[in-house]
Amino acid sequence: MTSTDTKTSERHGFRFSDIRGMFGGGQSTARQFGILGSLIAIILIFQIFSDGLTLSPGNVINVMQQYSYILILAIGMVMVIIMGHIDLSVGSVAAFVGIVVAKSMSEWNLPWWGAILLGLGLGALVGAWQGLWVAYVGVPAFIVTLAGMLFFRGANQWIGDSISVPVPREFVTIGAGYLPEIAGIPIPYNVPTLILGVLAAAWLVFFEWRTRRQQKKMGSERAPLWVSVVKVVLLCAVILGAALLFGSGRPGTSFPVSGIILLALVILYSFVTNHTVFGRHIYAVGGNRQAAKLSGVKDRRVDFFVMMNMSVLAAVAGMIFVARSQASGPQDGNGWELDAIAAVFIGGAAVSGGIGTVIGSIIGGLVMAFLNNGMQLLSFGADTVQMVKGAVLLVAVGIDAYNKQQGRPSVLGFLTKRRRPTGEFAGIDTTPIGARAMEAPPAAPPAPSPRSTTTQTPPAADDSATKEPGSR
Asked: Is the pTM of this model over 0.85?
């Protein structure tokens, strides 16, 4: 790479593609701005029609607490769907782990931290059992998890005798607790929540700086500096505004502990799926299983751990819900799997597998959360809420499928594509694995006609091969 390539890798001037890069194009480090725009529009519409109740501190805190367990399920479900599977058992597994954890504290006298470890271990055991059938026996995940949905729903009611089992106050903190107050600071905000927002904004600035530095080092084309500056300023404004909103709730409330758990899981699984070998294997197997196997990927092992991970996250979601409800009941987890699946597909995942992101699934889950919450604020009935959720899911997947069938650019492909790099990396395809699956395959060469009118003249034979020995 020459110094000239590095110096000329950053463009100057204005292009309309820079706006696309800022809001979801190849230069953007966050690839779900299109879905994020839909989320913002939904929030603003309900904010107007609810007379400002949607973005009130109490309502935003309630949404985070009420839907954190669905968002946690969506983190695991997106990995399952990328692999081309589906998991229908997550709601029943969450309920099963919840009742066992509640029983362990109320009747077996386990401490709260011991009950949490028991729940995580039980979730891993359930996931290993289902992963064994999927990966090594070869039963489709749909059938395995359908059986698991029925079995663990019955196990929940059998262990709990179809009654509610309360949990101690210490355990309630993980589902209904908040960041603590700091006494002696005379400001009308929760200080730890503000600190969390500042740290998140600082991390975003560092991440954008590191991304541009890596692009410069590789010699790839970079958007003008003003694009990165505007994007970072807008995102930091959203983060700090959310921190002020969560921190200005009524005394004793702030950013929920369940939200802290959710943020930690989002960061962890975003790193795993984007920057680890295991994450690359997930996309490789989901995009083309046979090609991945020929490349040396142990697809059965990937299937096994993805299914086991899903049940572990279901256990986490179940314990958070039980903690928030302060008791475990026989109806816990009903319909959770459908909400998690809807969040993943609205967030940009493909039915055929190979495409999806953790961040997109979280945004899709928030779309469903604010739709539910907004219609409840406007006093819509439960029947209307269900119909609207179904319509949103169908439209989100149907528009993209229609565009691909008509040969037009796919919405999901547009959100996940990258620009072609320049310099010494110009010949390398850096398109993400998930985005490659959305591109149309190259046209196959025409098959030769069985009665072709053109014939190829064979090469002339060497006369020396047919001459008798000694002849000239």
From this structure: no
